[in-house]
Amino acid sequence: MKYENYTVNDIKEMLIAKDVKPSIQRIKILEYIVKNRNHPTVDMIYNAIKDEIPTLSRTTVYNTLKELVKRGILIELLIDENVVRYDMNISPHVHFKCKVCGKIYDYDMNCEIFDKKEIDGNRIEKYSVYLYGTCKECLKKGDEKDGY
Ligand SMILES: [Zn+2]
Ligand SMILES: [Zn+2]
């Protein structure tokens, strides 16, 4: 199932399957990530759901995200220099970030190294591949930017 089709019930089941209590803030945070697929930062999530949960603080969002990463439900993206983004831990995929508009695109990994469980006797447990450049929309508009 594509994760953008996840319902609140699917999110609840996913949390329970990972031994995490499906609290309202965990569900809301995951629901935001699933619906938006925008690789959000703590601030993006906090600003989007704070009106729905008046008791929510930025620290709670941060701590919840950290916990969900630890449980293997989310992955951290360090594609930006000074801000962490979050994504669902679905099948391994690579990220392309446009340096002009900042949009992040998901792509499947189709390189044989990513099918391997080990390399040269070392066990592979985690992947992160970041691609940087200018996206097709910006190229079409002729928007360019120096540096990364
Ligand atoms: Zn772009
Ligand atoms: Zn992604």
Structure description:
With 148 residues, the protein is α+β, with helices and mostly antiparallel strands. It folds into 2 domains: 3-78, Arc Repressor Mutant, subunit A; 93-141, Ferric-uptake regulator, C-terminal dimerisarion domain (Dna Ligase, domain 1). The protein is 34% helix and 18% strand. It has 5 helices and 7 strands; from the N terminus they run ααααβββββββα. It has helices spanning 8-17, 24-36, 42-49, 58-70, 136-141; strands spanning 74-77, 85-88, 93-98, 104-108, 118-119, 122-123, 130-133. A 3-stranded mixed beta sheet has the order 4-3-7, with no helix packed on it. β3 and β4 (104-108) form a beta hairpin. The model has no long low-confidence stretch (mean pLDDT 91). The structure holds zinc ion (ZN) (2 copies).
Annotate the secondary structure layout.
Layout: H1 8-17, H2 24-36, H3 42-49, H4 58-70, E1 74-77, E2 85-88, E3 93-98, E4 104-108, E5 118-119, E6 122-123, E7 130-133, H5 136-141
Parallel strand pairs: 3-7
Antiparallel strand pairs: 1-2, 3-4, 5-6
Global Rg: 17 Å
Classify the helix fraction into a percent range.
25-40%
**Distance between the amino and carboxyl termini:** 35 Å
CATH topology of the largest domain: Arc Repressor Mutant, subunit A
Annotation, overall tally of beta strands? 7
Ions, cofactors and other ligands present here are: zinc ion
Strand composition percent: 15-25%
